[in-house]
Amino acid sequence: DAGITQSPRHKVTETGTPVTLRCHQTENHRYMYWYRQDPGHGLRLIHYSYGVKDTDKGEVSDGYSVSRSKTEDFLLTLESATSSQTSVYFCAISVGPGGISGYGYTFGSGTRLTVV
Amino acid sequence: DQQVKQNSPSLSVQEGRISILNCDYTNSMFDYFLWYKKYPAEGPTFLISISSIKDKNEDGRFTVFLNKSAKHLSLHIVPSQPGDSAVYFCAASPRSQGNLIFGKGTKLSVKP
Asked: CB-based contacts of B53: which residues, under 8 Å, 6+ apart?
């Protein structure tokens, strides 16, 4: 099974502060994704990466930025956290060749972020 | 504008019976459809997928059916077990893109 870890697992932060969430993989997969899960909304794509320094926006990218300086790490930054960004954040990697989504993603265990 | 819809937020089934979870989609350009299972405090786990050129895929107790004319897919779990109790997400892959679009999920409860 693909090794994918997220840190931290839980975080409480204050409105207006920057926050960075980390996703680390051990198997050199090219495609990585950040999703958020909210009640009544399912999983929504924030940003994704198709290689080092290659990223693109998803459905709900406003207020978020990402960076990928190494294959194994994909960072999600909330530039100035707001209460609407209280959510559970999941990182995922595409395990199929060329990122073909029919092979499915492997998800991390999630980061529960609370903005107070 | 939801492209992938799961209209039933919850489903309750007796152990040993069949569970049928449904999903509708609006975009004919999806090339794969997938089902994920999620337990509380864990990440979603991949369950089964189907290519848009097929109408059925089976893996043990799990079968996914695709009806392209109705833009509808369903996941059948037979027989249902209490350990199947979880939230199930339907997802679709737009052609030539590497991302997935998820439905809102259906919470399945299998009662002993």
From this structure: none
